[in-house]
User: What shape does this take?
Amino acid sequence: MGSDGGHFFSIPPDAVLKGVVHETGGGVYRVALADGRLVDAALRGRLKKERRTGDRVVIGDRVHVDSTDSSSFTIEAVEPRETVITRRGSGGRRPKVLAANVERMVVVVAAARPEPGMPQIDRLLVIAESNRVAPVLVVNKVDLPDGREAVAELETLYRGIGYPVYTTSAQDGTGLDAFRAVLCEGSSALVGPSGVGKSSLLNAIDPGLGLRVGGLSERVLRGRHTTVSARLVPLSCGGLVADTPGFGEVGVWGVRAADVDQCFPEFEALGVACRFEDCVHLVEPDCAVRESVESGNVAPSRYESYRSLMKEALEAEDRRGA
Ligand SMILES: Nc1nc2c(ncn2[C@@H]2O[C@H](COP(=O)(O)OP(=O)(O)O)[C@@H](O)[C@H]2O)c(=O)[nH]1
Ligand SMILES: [Mg+2]
Ligand SMILES: [Zn+2]
Assistant: This one.
């Protein structure tokens, strides 16, 4: 299951400044130092090498910074990560770590415009489950009358499984107090398709942020800083929110076929009841999961998501000859 496989660098004794990476892009790392300063740092050579082999320094990383003079900073070491959010990179052969040390993943969809897609929600929830980051579902734009059915359906399905579901409208303020309380606690990664209102929600919760809404993304509008990949936005209430782009094609990384069912909590509850202990719930006789789909206790959309992820995991294992 998702782990970052020994991400540890020895810490030199003369590195005195500690901080958290808030923004990355173009080889520059913006670090919020423990003393309150926000500085731009470069990577020490051997970390650069690590970076080329795919294990990048990402937002949320806790780093040790050395300062040769008061205006030039170098990241000397990265502390072991408590959590990572990893997805499959483009091409599908490599993992892409989006953020480190984030406590929860907030999956944001819209009640309508754009219409919510359950396969996409399920994939994002599986990314959270497999990385052991607490999942939260937000259904925004509940002010839209054409989204009413979808809101009821999503609430019933995902609350039934046990996920926390928040219904919000950045437009009329519905549900914002409850959602604010979530974001103000610790650190969260906000993920979901573009246009669902992620920036609008952050602005509504913290008007001081002034994030761009609609159309062009922050990244495009910031012109020459187009390589900015992600950033951590500090809220005035104390929470940290990772604004992560690149969740268009949602690929899951690092879940073995035999473990996919562990990312579906409602199957886990039934798992012991299958006839075979190693049942993967596809064609086996006396499978409690398939029987629960038949009897209506497991949603067909969830089982479809499971089958689709199983297919991908099995194909990936075939490619690697596992
Ligand atoms: N009706 C309605 N529109 C919203 C709501 N939240 C955002 N929008 C609109 O949806 C569009 C996309 O919003 P944006 O915050 O940029 O979405 P993002 O791409 O997820 O960051 C904008 O036109 C917003 O004005 C909402 O709660 N209700
Ligand atoms: Mg946005
Ligand atoms: Zn089974």
User: Anything to note?
Assistant: The first strand starts at residue 17 and ends at 25. Residues 198-199 surround magnesium ion (ligand 2) (CB under 6 Å). The chain has nine helices and 13 strands.
